[in-house]
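Possible regression after last week's pipeline update?

I re-ran a chain I had predicted before the update to compare outputs. Posting the input and the new output here so someone can diff against the archived version. Not blocking, just want to make sure nothing changed silently.
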Amino acid sequence: MILENHGTPGRAQNCSKADFQDSSDQVTVKMEILSFCHSSRASSPLPGFIVFFLTCYVHKMESAQFSVTGPGHPVTAIVGEAIVLPCHLSPRMSAENMEVRWFRSEFLSFVHLYQHGKDQYGNQMSDYHGRTELLKAAITDGNVSLRILNIRRSDEGQYNCFVQDGSFYEEAPLELKIAALGSNPVISVESHQDGGIRVVCQSAGWYPEPKVLWRDHSGQELPSLSEAKSLGDSGLFETENSIIIKEHSNQNLSCWIRNTVLNQEKESTVYIADFFFPRVNPWMVALSVILPVLFGFIGLTMYLFKIKDDLQRELDWRRNILYPVNVTLDPDTAHPELILSEDQKSVRRGDTWQDLPNDPERFDTEPCVLGCEGFTSGRHCWEVEVGAGRFWAVGVARESVRRKGGISPSPKGGIWAVERLWGEFQALTSPRTRLPLSRAPSRIWVCLDCDRGQVTFIDAGDQAPIFTFPPGSVPGERIRPWLRVGRGSRLRLCP
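New output (post-update):
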């Protein structure tokens, strides 16, 4: 008597009592067939051969019930977005009553488990709580693909799709690669060096390690002076690359950063005017530096006076004409990782995905939330306390702003806001505008003028202007408060 093991060698099986009974019945049937075969050979060799052939055919059918098939090539996912890991049975058959287990290195500590006709979460890896979903729409056709939400850098690596029916099981490996497209390059002119000017290009949020190049106006590559790359707290790369630019040579240049996995790049361009370059005559050098600074100071002073007058009018309006509005957060729009207070005035980002209805109003990829109130006319102000959080964005969005999948945080995507990211402040224009603030604000006034189509941001601490989207920027439709909350940040709408 031969006992057979179907499936992958070495995998521990958890057979039930019924499984052992089925195996025993199969062995008994085989013994009876073999006994009949033996007795038939004595009288006639042909019937015995036929029975022996049928026995081998049945055995073959039992050993090849199905196979588990993956994509056969690595699957690439983008940080912050969702990805589907494909897996199906061949030939097609229903997996409704089978066990489907997705795991990484540990069989018992799983990424997702479907068993006894429903999802099981008892020993699920904590990193995947609330982030996985077995796609059951085509499970009757043998499709057992897995969706993972809000992809993280730590999700990269090998996954195993394991399917078991009774005592028979098969599995297929799958490799997941992670990629992230970082921020737009920020180019800054640092200092005079080696008879030229040292220019620096900085960017963050890339994975894997990006390729950084300097190019001239004709697209020719230029040699770098230095390059530094490091991994940030989130496991994504930050890069800083510098170059020396000489007068009358490559004054119009661009910094080009490429993600080699996504085959996408981001680029910023700068032009260095002649008067910035050092001259042989030190007096000419001094004059070429002092005059632009002097004229720039005069222009800046006039601009600041204008801004101050505009701001004073804005503050007078806010204080004397209209009282600030009382706004609250709409829980029906909050991303499942965001936790709102009972009074709907504050929000923070948790570590787990809450079990909330995935209705059309809810953001499902970006950690955003809208205010309950919407405005179509008039002037309205509200104060947001951002505290010492390092990752946040505050502003307004049109009511029809995209909620599902990746969003474009810019006026083109229906969002007018300022943000803090990697210790820098930016206005979410397209491309983004760097804000050289003298100090980090802890409270920000958001002032919306629907009639003029304008949004202004003011530091509530010292009443200093932060940024203004010019008149006509905001369209004439219903506008609502908008917040994006990074990890470690807590935002609160002040009374």
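Follow-up from reviewer: compared with the archived run. The first strand starts at residue 67 and ends at 69. Marking as no regression found.
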